[in-house]
Amino acid sequence: MNNLIKSSLFRYIKPLTVLVPQPTTRRCLSIMSTINNDNIIATTPINKRVQETNTVTKVKKQKLKKYKAKKADPTSPSGVLQFEIDDLLKTHNLTRDEVSNDVSTILNDFSKEDENSITKKYHRIVNDVEILVLTSSGDGLALIDHPVDSTKKQIAIVPFGLPGDITNIRVFKTHPYYVETDLLDVNKKSPIRRDDLIRDKYFGKASGSQFEFLTYEKQLEIKMNTISNAYKYFAPRLVEECILPATGTTIPSPLPYYYRTKITPHFDMPRRAKVLEERPPLGFGQKGRPTWRKETLEVGGHASTLDIDECALATDILNIGLTNERRRFDKEFKNYKKGATILLRENTIVFDETKTIKEQLGEGSRDENGEVSYVEVEDKERGVKLIKTCVTNQKQIVSEYVDGYTFNFTAGEFFQNNNSILSTVTKYVRENLQIPNSKIDEPNYLVDAYCGSGLFSVCSSKGVEKVTGVEISADSVSFAEKNAKLNGIENCDFIVGKAEKLFESISTPNDRTSVILDPPRKGCDEVFMKQLAEYYPARIVYISCNVHSQARDIEYFIKETEKGSHYKIESLRGFDFFPQTHHVESVCVLSRV
Ligand SMILES: C[S@@+](CC[C@H](N)C(=O)[O-])C[C@H]1O[C@@H](n2cnc3c(N)ncnc32)[C@H](O)[C@@H]1O
Description:
GO terms for molecular function: tRNA (uracil(54)-C5)-methyltransferase activity, S-adenosyl methionine-dependent. The chain has about 600 residues and is an alpha+beta fold. The chain has helices spanning about 5-15, 20-30, 75-90, 105, 120, 215-235, 235-240, 315-330, 355-360, 420-435, 455-460, 475-485, 500-505, 525-535, 545-560; strands spanning about 15-20, 50, 55-60, 125-130, 135, 140-145, 155-160, 165-175, 180-190, 260-265, 265, 340, 345-350, 375-380, 385-390, 395-400, 405-410, 445-450, 465-470, 490-495, 515, 540-545, 565-575, 585-590. The strands form six sheets. The protein has a seven-stranded mixed β-sheet, sandwiched between helices. Bound molecules: S-adenosylmethionine (SAM).
């Protein structure tokens, strides 16, 4: 429908109450009944109640759908995308107006099935599109012609597109300043594209491992750039004033594949179904409807959840567990009344030579004979035999083994997911917590804020007088206390509460105290940062799985707190906790000057 007809139609249905001659009303009703728009983010329901009289039909409360932007935390992926869009616009000398889309018109397009509808104009195939840059979420960004205004462009997000690729894409969703697309074909390959490296049979369809078609060196370089960009966006004053050191090279994961110690495949219940007649796909979400990997078009099916029987990122025992749990699901799926997520968490047992393996296994995922599955591994450095099982019960207590220390925690609770890199990262943290020029007779202290079940507290406890951990989850604190004891460590105290609770009772001398921060994705809050600056510790090591909130916090600490300006950023670098994905763990070290 062209704009003219549509706007005249809206004039009919906009008023709260209108009297419309019957033939026109019938047309309005049939048009309204076709509304099924993917782009509805917020809608005002259309009241379709019609009161018929002999000659006229009364249509009540006809309202247009309004587009309402979702509020996003600026440091969330959709918030960061806004900075990335502005960067791209700047490079191409464009303004936001010049890439804007009329989302409301699409939202109120009642004839979207018509060949000439506005929806069809927007949601189309575009050929020979060059991918220009990569976002921090690992997607390609491109500029394409605007479908309805030849003076404008559109910004397209292209998952699995790499800078330099020339691609065919399908636009399927429109936002005010960008469109979402599926990658259909790669006509010319980017020089960095290495499809020959792909191992995962679901790659290019499943969300998750997006970087398998890059060399590992390239992945590490991209993650280093992600950290630099995060500070450019969220700590611009530190960048402008040149008080930020160059981002260090990303520390690789010893295992680039088969490293994840926790996965959570899920299945959905078909809409309105009360019982499952057919076994639904069990696996991970599909990333759009891409078709560029022709050889894998049928792999995993076509539902929004792909049916996945192997995960190239998960450890061996989790893949065995996945096979077991899929077999169980084949038999039991009819018992489920709604969709569910299945937990597969690795459990590590230090082998006790006085007992048989079977005596030590505990509960875990079972094979077709009903036996708990396990694999044996060796810690060659310490000459210790380890047994790995796969736990599926959220409440079961599981163990991790890091650097000779054992950590117990509840299977459903947080613990770092890549065991292979933990020895490297805990060593790095320990070394960077050291207060320079420490004298032998002067004791040093440690504070572990957001301590979880005590990973950094325990691994950094040697050589310091006392460690104080603080953590909001009482359950995690109780495990942290037990973990210290289990490993024969007596100098750790743990407090339950928000991180800032620490400052109510802290008694260690600030000049001799180092602080570890390891907050959740949203980062620290200003109250905590202010009190931290007030306490004025000798060194701070800030670890984060969201470098964007880390950059925001570091700038706030240095620029907005009274004593923050007395600190210098000693180093900033990534650790690759999540190979083959876009995620990076960032570690920033601050010292007092
Ligand atoms: C990324 S995890 C780090 C845990 C631990 N450092 C580790 O490596 O296992 C963040 C932890 O912060 C805790 N947390 C979240 N908000 C908090 C707050 N306001 N104060 C203290 N702890 C908090 C969570 O419960 C979680 O255990």
